Amino acid sequence: MLSGKQKRFLRSMANGLQPIFQVGKGGVNENMVTQIAEALEVRELIKVSILQNCDENKDDVARALATGAKAQVVQVIGSVIVLYKESKENKEIKLP
């Protein structure tokens, strides 16, 4: 579990990132969760945008992605989700 200080640190790091995945009409599927898990292993911190045609609630989408990819939800702001997962092999982010 991330502390408030760690979440603030990660939010500041995510500020300059662009979303690399989009959740659309199909919602969250197994293939997307697998790709997000792989991206998190490489990058540790990613943004996922939710398109307007997505039928699911953004908090449900965030929870489904985090659970599936075994990651932490750092922030849900507007239609963007920030996810963090400590990398096993490519650890670059040092949490405070």
TrEMBL record:
The keyword RNA-binding applies. Keywords: RNA-binding. GO terms for molecular function: RNA binding. Residues 1-96 form the CRM domain. SUPFAM superfamilies: YhbY-like. NCBIfam families: RNA_bind_YhbY. This is CRM domain-containing protein.
